[in-house]
Amino acid sequence: VAAVLAGLSLLSLFTCGYLAWGSRRGGAGQAPGNLLGEEPAAGAPRSQPHIIFILADDQGFRDVGYHGSEIRTPTLDKLAAEGVKLENYYVQPMCTPSRSQLITGKYQIHTGLQHSIIRPTQPNCLPLDNVTLPQKLKEVGYSTHMVGKWHLGFYRRECMPTQRGFDSFFGSLLGSGDYYTHFKCDSPGICGYDLYENDNAAWDHDNGIYSTQMYTQKVQQILASHNPRKPIFLYIAYQAVHSPLQAPGRYFEHYRSINNINRRRYAAMLACLDEAINNVTLALRKYGYYENSIIIYSSDNGGQPMAGGSNWPLRGSKGTYWEGGIRAVGFVHSPLLKNKGSVCKELVHITDWFPTLITLAEGQIDEDIQLDGYDVWETISEGRRSPRVDILHNIDPIYTKAKNGSWAAGYGIWNTAIQSAIRVNHWKLLTGNPGYSDWVPPQAFSNAGPNRWHNERVSWTAGKTVWLFNITADPYERVDLSARYPEVVKQLLRRLSQFNKTAVPVRYPPKDPRSNPKLNGGVWGPWFKEDEKKKKPDKNKGANKQKSKNKKKAN
């Protein structure tokens, strides 16, 4: 079996199926008026497309209708069926890493964000010397708007979305929070409000509206007020379906039969999200954007089974480098696609959107920007081979080291105690501690509470710190080939080592007590004051000068 797995080729498979768009009414974020009306005349030809990037939060690989889910997602199913489904598409295993790679086109090791996420109390953000996707799009005339979850840091004003290329921002700065009140507690007593409009707390919008619906209404307002003859970049980063598991009551209607309370709530949240995306699409049609638009849909990482998400039949979950943590639901829907109704099984990564979208927008990528992403538009639209042959999933030098990892286990090439993962062609290598590694089948959600009885447990020999899989032949990571193909292991370890030589230091500072919302009017927001930083050196400089004089006298 192993020989067969190793020998399968990398030929891309394309399957075709066409479904006509069927308009339907929806309630999530429904704006007044009939969104099913005729689309206005397109007017003069426009070469720069409208770009709508929709990022879902914690949606599991199985949690879409066309992947066999019991949760109904008619909007996503139709958009994907008429577009191109990305079935070899990868993101990062957590929120901040995926968002940073989307917006910069760079791996985490090249931004310093290779460990965990940006915490609310950390003086940290996406490094300011990184050019962002909206900044590049603004250079070529795009109006840029962000609605939803930022999670790329905010400790100083320069880190805010409006300072990183967005003309407007409406949403949350943190990684999670209450869907209705928009409050978030990072720890006992460290709580604050987290809803912003541009650079200020959006108290006026605190009307108890469910965030999925509220964000959709904001998107509709932006589309209604913008001139469709001018290009727009709209980044919609929904909070759903991230915990806490909350949804309006009427979305539970079709899921009363799900006994597991977390799965039931998750299903209701996803149903609301699907309806919201329908309303966004209808607004694109109503206001004259659709015919010249590119809609990209992606999850930011795998699902979390303990919070209702399912990645079956993939292994692992959010926060891990198993396929269940990094292989994502993704598709592109656009009238501009050449091969509509197809499935792309070529390798695509979230860093690829940066160069792909800038090129589509007729922008320029500076020669001095060392990107990790590739332009994959012809791969998606025309079915051509992907320029990408590898993905560095990550190297995290400060994650908990694997106890039995060593340089010896890595053939003197790599310390296998370090958490890392890499994909080269059809091979995938993991080292260190890859994280929770069970397979969680649908039966695991059959009981009222969380249940691991049905999970397929892993029975690796103790002390294992290297795994090798042929992902093309074994996407479920059931047959470890590391012992059978040591030369392949060595090749991938060398590639890891090469990547590691280009890594910048990890940015993961300790918490700053000044971040407490109590010191900032009860709001999570920028707390670092540049003026304070400047005053202190001046004071010390004077003191040091006096000390120097005294020292000279003493000498």
Can you walk me through this structure?
This protein has 555 residues and is α/β, with parallel strands linked by helices. It has a domain at 50-388: 3-Layer(aba) Sandwich (Alkaline Phosphatase, subunit A). It has helices spanning 2-7, 74-82, 95-104, 133-139, 211-225, 261-286, 323-326, 353-360, 377-382, 486-500, 530-554, and strands spanning 50-56, 84-86, 89-90, 143-149, 168-172, 183-187, 190-193, 196-197, 200-201, 232-237, 293-299, 330-333, 342-344, 348-349, 390-396, 419-424, 427-431, 466-470. The protein has a 10-stranded mixed β-sheet, with helices on both faces. It has a 4-stranded antiparallel β-sheet with strand order 15-16-17-18, with helices on one face. A two-stranded parallel sheet has the order 3-14. Strand 6 (183-187) and strand 7 (190-193) form a beta hairpin. Helix 5 (211-225) packs parallel to helix 6 (261-286). It is globular. The termini are far apart. 51% of the residues are buried. Mean pLDDT is 88; it is low at 1-27, 29-45 and 533-555. Residues 1-22 form the signal peptide.
